[in-house]
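Homework help thread (please don't just give me the answer)

Our assignment gives two proteins as sequence + structure token strings and asks us to describe the second one. The first is just a warm-up. Here they are:
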Amino acid sequence: MLIRDVPDFPSPGVLFKDVTPWLADGAAFSSAIDTLARHFSARAVDVVVGVEARGFIVASPVALALRTGFVPARKPGKLPWRVATREYSLEYGSGSLEIHEDAIRPGDRVVIVDDVLATGGTAGAAIALVEQLGGEVTGLGFLLELAHLGGRARLGDLDICALEVV
């Protein structure tokens, strides 16, 4: 498996799952992008939202493969224009995400992509932002799911594609 365990990051007691070795392996990275794009290719998708920061790395090529636009969901203060904001809880703290308020148009069909599904807090915030802007989330894609943290159950009946589940 191309996932590195990093103990006590970003805070004591957290076992961080580092996917950068997966991203650094050309064959594994390419296969991951192909698999995610293939999973969502049968549906109509208008835009792929990538969650900061490693989600950008995965979501951008998925958007290219699906021939859709890409929208970044960023940490506060990183986007230069008017934004919609949503706060959320993590397994080791809290955070918030922002999307430009004109990045998702009413009726847009959206796939959200991030590197890891853990507690579902970040994904839930991204879903709420898309819906707040009038979009419809049609699926979520992840490289890795940490099943023991129960994030999938917190995201409702949405189609979730996780390439590795631990």
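The one we have to describe:
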Amino acid sequence: MAINYNGDIAVVLDTQHRTPGNLRAFVQASIRSIKTGKSSDVRFSSTEKLEVIPMQTTKMEFSYKDGADFVFSNPETYETITITPEIVGDAVNYLVENAPVTVTLVDDKPVQVELPSSVVLEVTDAPEGIRGDSANNVQKTVTLETGITVQAPLFIKTGEKLKIDTRTGKYMERA
């Protein structure tokens, strides 16, 4: 969710409700400011009132990289938005042209890029497996088209497409 905190709009990244011993309960939250992009940990007492700001999610596709920034387009309206690398975060490891993503907007500003649970990427470098190395589930390190490396079975070759779990970054199956 997004909240108005000290006159600034901030996105709530994580919350924990705590009740220490004989003290009053409070909520510990990690928030990121939309203006500055800085994250901070704050405490809210259980009696504090917060103004919740509506968030909007849109299905978009990754178009191209413009310098350090990333350009996404809406497949229905063909509108484009440019998002900074700080907001894209770890999703950069799984972005290929026309990759579907969900972009969360607050006040028409992008605050989060969410990937699907798995993506299909092509293998660009896969060293040969050593003959006789077929004991129990032996794996090798392969490089994918986005530059990340994953552990995959010995039979994977350069040029094959693999399904990768975006939450764990692990090999799932051939695509």
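TA reply:
I won't write it for you, but here's a hint about the kind of observation we're looking for: Residues 63 and 72 are 5 Å apart (CA to CA).
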